[in-house]
Design a protein that fits this description.
alpha/beta, Spore Coat Polysaccharide Biosynthesis Protein SpsA, Chain A, eight-stranded mixed sheet, 10 helices, 8 strands, about 50% helix, about 15% strand, elongated
Length: about 300
């Protein structure tokens, strides 16, 4: 079989109910493009019948390939597995719940054929999200834009990467991976296509608020050292404040005035103690990232493979 022109990498976790229909819709769109293609489905340690669905479709669709990870390593690492195994000249990454509309794929391929190295699908409308999710996403991406040199507005994992971009991405050896950030960091010629997030075909998102918060912390500590610099700046500000307060106290002492303000001292101690604990927490997050990198463990382990 000839090498595919386009690989479609689809990470999945416990998507038994909708996977067959979703892959069928994606496959129909790819057939209509007249491109040689492969569907590479990465099962990220599902505990339901997801792998059985992949096995069944593999027997019927020769272009479908599968990877089964040894456990749930997380979506970011599942994407890593797919990118490492994809054989196409262009590689599309998309979700299996059809919230990334397959109908956008022909336009992405067209922009790629016209010379774009990275074609990014950006969210124009976030769909049926709660106000809390919308505000949290807006806060996170605004923060990331402020901490880094990249524009994160409407960012998503739905992208098409040229082979040279994939090869450049493979050179990034960190264990704490954030695909959207890594894809932005490598640069290259980019083109954006807007899309509206569609409702999920079935089920609910596997991302809890705690997991999203963990991803946000990992993304920030992996792509910016600004929080560490903020600690240093805060230290200088408090040093200047302490010097002024010390001079004021000495003036009162030598002028014979009574030194009062016990409540103020208590408040200052509480404030500085809180800032110290916050600073230690931030430093701890960076130390945790360093610790994970130094161990050098693989990002994922493959249990089964369907060629």
């Amino acid at each position: 079989m000839k090498c595919p022109a386009v690989s479609v990498v689809i990470p999945v976790h416990n998507e038994e109910d909708c996977l067959s229909d979703s892959l069928g819709a994606i496959r129909d769109v790819m057939i209509a493009t007249n491109e040689r293609f492969e569907l590479l489905v990465v099962d990220d340690g599902s505990t339901d019948g997801t792998w059985n669905v992949i096995l069944d479709l593999h027997h019927r669709w020769p272009e479908l390939k599968g990877l089964r990870l040894s456990r749930n390593f997380g979506k970011e690492n599942a994407i890593c597995a797919g990118l490492s195994e994809a054989a196409g000249d262009g590689v599309i990454i998309m979700d299996a719940d059809l919230q990334h509309p397959p109908g956008l794929i022909p336009g992405m391929i067209r922009e790629w054929r016209n010379g774009a190295d990275v074609v990014e699908a950006v969210k124009r409308d976030r769909g049926q999200e709660s106000w809390f999710s919308r505000m949290s996403a807006r806060l996170f991406y605004s923060l990331m834009s402020g901490l880094t040199q990249f524009d994160w507005a409407g960012a998503s994992d739905f992208k098409l990467l040229d082979r040279k971009v994939v090869n450049a991405w493979k050179m990034l050896g960190e264990r704490n991976v954030f695909f959207r950030g890594m894809a932005a960091w490598v640069g290259y010629t980019r083109k954006q296509l807007p899309f509206d997030v569609a409702p999920r075909v079935s089920g609910r998102s596997k991302w809890s608020r705690w997991r999203l918060a963990g991803l946000a912390i990992r993304a920030i500590t992996s792509f910016s050292s600004v929080p560490l610099r903020i600690i240093g700046v805060a230290g200088l500000i408090f040093l200047a404040f302490a010097m002024m307060l010390g001079l004021h106290t000495l003036y009162q002492y030598f002028s014979g005035e009574a030194v009062t303000g016990f409540a103020t001292v208590i408040l200052l101690i509480l404030l500085t103690s809180s800032l110290i604990m916050l600073a230690l927490g931030i430093i701890g997050e960076y130390l945790a990232r360093i610790y994970e990198e130094v161990k050098g463990r693989p990002r994922y382990l493959i249990r089964d493979r369907l060629e």
